[in-house]
Amino acid sequence: MQQVDRVIGERLTTEVPLVKEVAQYIISAGGKRLRPALLLLISGALQSRDPHRFTLAAVVEFIHTATLLHDDVVDESTMRRGRATANERFGNAPSVLVGDFLYSRAFQMMVSVDNMRVMQVLADTTNVIAEGEVLQLMNMRDTSLDEMSYLRVIRSKTAKLFEASARLAPILAGASSEVEAACANYGQALGTAFQVIDDVLDYEGDAELLGKNLGDDLREGKVTLPLICALQRSSTDDQELIKNAIENGDLTHQNKILHIIRSSGALDAARASAAAEAMRAIDALSALEPSAYKGALLELANGLLDRRN
Question: Where does the chain cross the membrane (predicted)?
Fold first, then answer.
């Protein structure tokens, strides 16, 4: 991971001061670096020491960071990772344009790997992520959204980059198509579980630990799995209260809605869905030989269910 950070620092070079300032601001905020870590752990499990793994780990972090910059503008978010978002500090225009810079820099870097299969995976991934963003926008304030439609969005918007990170390692290692598919399945399942838990924490987490405001999803009109489950489990009156908040942005009764979500069993149901995805990820690891790296991947899937930030 230190090698990845070194590559990130080297490739953030630019002669445009504002680009460097905004990019360094959001990347220096840290974050979990799960996607690059996933690529490195699977590389280790496959006994791959291809030096391009550090470049590609930095690439997936750049792509992820670009999506964060764009997301925060679309969502009008003001806090991420415990401090002001880039759009809050620098404005919307610099955030969007620096997001574009990070996307284009990521493609410059992946070209340097000189592997058409790598290019195909990452090009397809960025396209699917963009589709997921548009799908989410279309689903805003739609109280008829069901779990299948919700999962379609998060598997495009969030899980796809996890899947790509997990797939790139066996491609570099020259692994079989079966191993590549298993690694990709692990990444997709892990990314899905990660996003479901993230959506749960929006209603039961600690704002200070999360580094963002609780209830942001409700304020933005995002119909996530906890809301879908709450609507299925609530009385008619409570359903109308939730629907009014989603459809009209009326947060007058936000505290009552939070109580409904928490008392209806919706969060437990959402966590059960995440647990099923985590088990799917664990099952996919049967394709890998036993090693400390595989053990870490197993621990990562199990640890998601206890995530609190």
Answer: none
Closest CA to 158 of 182, 180, 136: 136
Distances 288 to 35, 112, 163, 182, 275 between C-alpha atoms, Å: 19, 29, 16, 9, 21
Residue 251 confidence (pLDDT): 83
Which residue segments constitute the domains of the chain, with CATH numbers given?
Answer: 2-299 (1.10.600.10)
Write a three-state SS string for the chain.
CHHHHHHHHHHCCCCCHHHHHHHHHHHCCCCCCHHHHHHHHHHHHCCCCCCHHHHHHHHHHHHHHHHHHHHHHHHCCCEECCEECHHHHHCHHHHHHHHHHHHHHHHHHHHHCCCHHHHHHHHHHHHHHHHHHHHHHHHCCCCCCCHHHHHHHHHHHCHHHHHHHHHHHHHHHCCCHHHHHHHHHHHHHHHHHHHHHHHHHHHHCCHHHHCCCCCHHHHHCCCCHHHHHHHHHCCHHHHHHHHHHHHHCCCCCHHHHHHHHHHCCHHHHHHHHHHHHHHHHHHHHHHCCCCHHHHHHHHHHHHHCCCCC
Number of other residues whose CB lies within 10 A of the CB of residue 136: 22
Contact 57, 169 (CB under 8 A): no
Which segments in the chain show pLDDT lower than 70? 205-214, 308-309
